[in-house]
Amino acid sequence: MKNILNIKSFWALVLLVNLCGCESSDDFLKENPTTFYTVDNAFSTSAQVDQVLVSIYSQVRDLWANPAESAWIFVLRGNGTDMYDVASIRKSATFNNYGVINIDNGTFYNIFSTYYQIIAKANFAMEAANLPQISWASDQEKAYTIAQAKFFRAYAYRNLGELFGGVPLVTEVSKTPQYDFGRSTRVETYQFAIDDLLSIENDLPETSVSGGRIVRGAAQHNLAELYLAMGTQLAADGKGGEAQAAFAKSITYASKVIDGGVYSLMKTRYGARKNEEKGNVYWDLFQENNVNYQDGNKESIWTLQVDYAAYRAEDSKSKLPYSRTYGPVFRDGAKDHLTGTLEDVGGRGISQIIPTFYTRDDIYADKWGKDMRNSNIVFQREIIGNVASSPYFGKPVPWEVIYNGSPDATTNKNNSSLCYPISCKIATDQYTGLSDGENRSNLFRDDYFIRLSETILLRAEAKQRNGDKSGAAADVNLLRERAQCEYLVSAADMDDSFNVILDERARELVYEEARWNTLLRMGGTIAVDRIKKHAYWPEAQATLTFNYNLWPIPQTIIDTNKDVVLEQNPGWNR
To answer: Residue 131 belongs to a domain with what CATH number?
Structure first.
């Protein structure tokens, strides 16, 4: 392969697209017809270079929103962790049965290869930006273009490092086949991403006119996460001094975002529905026209963009299919009392993944219960019976009845997998597009990639790992105070297994964070312990008989890299 154009012709590891075709001794193939594109002649304007970036934004949006409802993306979003599982009707899509999860599992390959696609496009954009024929309106425009490309490359390597550990570092467009990539270490992978972000921090604007484009706070947030992840790995490697220095840098970069004057937690009602009595400020965060910084949302750092007009006209992927994919199916699981697909049951849900009982109930047990994020408008637990023959018609259906309405325990287990509280992040009482034929499957609001709340929780973790449990508790309480929680944490609560921080992440970032990234970068046995404890179905406890804090390198990648052995991650050579 020579250059990049068609994303589907990627080689298994580098995943670089083919502009020129394979080299050959055939005279015909040695010719250079005027219609044969190369990196050097494919671009003539800066706008064309920007389109490469647009393709990355689009791919990352689709990777997050999952408009195609790909099973492997649900794993990326958290299926199989302590927070999410699958409903009874989707047991074949479980990611908690380690009798079938192995190095040949296609999910690992899809995630690994997708991040290398992003890296390939980012390298391509950087090379194209430096072509001599490209004219830029200003040095700042060129610098910003390159900065966005480097951001995405760093973003991809951060994800690869957290999920797979040390991986091959591809730094430029590959124009010939290569089968001898060597693995970096996990720390080296993090450091490469850090170096990319440090080099472009000041080339990114603090704010942007339109939503969705990368700003400086997004880079600083990722630096905070990268230094935290690197410090955790250094500590595991026995390099305590270096680890503490990394944690200190994590705190520094998180503080740039938290205390820099650009961002702040929203603490009072705002936006399009602020005058409605039924809402609260946390609910406001997830309403249409309220998500972007440009909408007055000062805790919004980086968002994916969804546009209903574009969806109707040409972009069928411009949607959040959350009501469909994440929504409960009361019409099956509690059919004697609840039915339909209207707003009262969260829309047209089909339960592709479900919240575990840890996510829906355990984190709000006892003293943790009084919390704005547990209010009925945010996490709807009061579901009104709508079946005329039900004794609960027009009244709240008790969860004991929903969960245990059958004399058969297996039926109850299945039904309770289909029925659960409805988060305001996945449903709404005002669906867009109903007059155009939409059926309450999709939301048409923008969504968060980075919200200030997560930056605060990263800093809390870095502080705790750096020995400052009081500071960690104070950061957690920034969120708990905003949520008007009755119970505020103290240094004594900050346990060494990071349960307080992980629980707070679940409360604050349900349906937002990439939970696998969080659990795997925590190190030790945290991921395995929590999966075995909180998985909805019993297969995890029965089959997860080994410890790991990295996913396996996909076997396809190892096999393709025939000239150099890529070592498999510990625990997966079984």
So the answer is: 1.25.40.390
Q: Which of 420, 436, 452 is the last residue of a domain?
A: 436
With H, G, I as helix, E, B as strand and everything else as coil, classify residue 497. coil
Find all residues with CB under 8 Å of 146, minimum gap 6, and list them.
125, 126, 129, 130, 200, 203
- Do residue 408 and residue 542 come from a single domain? no
Residue 322: inside a domain? yes
pTM score of the predicted model = 0.93
**Spatial separation of the C-alpha atoms in residues 466 and 468, rounded to whole Å:** 6
The pLDDT score that the predictor gives to residue 574 is 60
Most distant pair of Cα atoms in the chain: their distance:
82
Going from the C-alpha of 257 to that of each of 13, 128, 365, the distances in angstroms are: 35, 31, 32
| Same domain? 411 vs 532 | no
**Are both 151 and 16 inside the same structural domain?**
yes
Are the C-beta atoms of 19 and 38 separated by less than 8 Å? yes
Q: Which domain holds residue 563?
A: 1-203+513-574
CA distances from 456 to 264, 473, 496 (A): 10, 11, 19
Q: Is residue 138 part of a domain?
A: yes
pLDDT tens for 24-57 read: 344 433 444 455 556 677 788 999 999 999 999 9
- Per-residue confidence (pLDDT) for residue 202, from 0 to 100: 97
Provide the pLDDT for residue 30: 44
pLDDT in tens, 316-360: 999 999 999 999 999 999 999 999 999 999 999 999 999 999 999
Q: How many domains does the chain have?
A: 2
Strand partners, 396: 384
In this structure, how many other beta carbons lie within 10 angstroms of the beta carbon of residue 196?
26
Residue at which a domain ends, from 395, 415, 436 = 436
Shared domain check, 116 and 22: yes
Kindly report the number of other CB atoms within 10 A of residue 184's CB atom: 19
85 torsion bin: left (phi>0), alpha (psi -120 to 50), beta (else): beta
Contact by Cβ (8 Å): 95, 80: yes
Task: For residue 477, tell me if it sits in a domain.
Answer: no
Closest CA to 163 of 186, 195, 181: 186
Spatial contact of 39 and 128, defined as CB atoms under 8 Å apart: yes
Do 430 and 526 fall within a single domain?
no
**Whether 376 contacts 382, CB under 8 Å:** yes
Q: Give the three-state DSSP class for 451.
A: strand
**Is there a single domain that holds both residue 118 and residue 17?**
yes
Instruction: Pick out the chain residues at pLDDT < 70.
Output: 1-39, 574
Does residue 198 share a domain with residue 327? Answer: no
pLDDT in tens, 244-297: 999 999 999 999 999 999 999 999 999 989 999 999 999 999 999 999 999 999
Decide if 91 is inside a domain: yes
Task: Say what the pLDDT of residue 189 is.
Answer: 98
pLDDT of residue 35: 52
